Amino acid sequence: MALTPEDLQAIGSLIQNSIQPLRDDIQDIKGDMQSMKTDMQGMKADIQNMKTDIQNMKTDIQNMKTDIQNMKTDIQNMKTDIQSLDERLQKLENRVTHIELTLENETNHNIQLLAENHITLVDKLNEAIRVQDKSILYEVQVSDLKSRVEHLEREMADIRAKIA
Length: 164
What we know:
Layout: H1 5-129, H2 135-163
């Protein structure tokens, strides 16, 4: 049994009809693949942009680290300077205290002795010339006592401030 050209044509037509949906499916797959290829290209570009952004962020972070390190160094220098100033201030406070003690214990005492001796001399002079007016000497003594009282009041205020 030999196939006639009509039979072959009918078989070819059947095969064509059966293959056509496969060809359409393949064409759809090709379109989908082309679309995926385009999407992948877009993703590649996006990834490249992300890599660039990340690299820029790394550079910025490195710059920030450098800035922070510089700030740490500056803060350490300021701490050293403040410590030096504290030491100098403590020395100055010690000198002021020493000066205050010298004034209180020596200078004021010596002035008091001079004033007392001066009164004695004036008394002798007054006896010699019979002058009764000692008011100037008493003013000196009162002035000295006033300054001593003011000094004591300041010390008490300082003590109260330290206690509070």
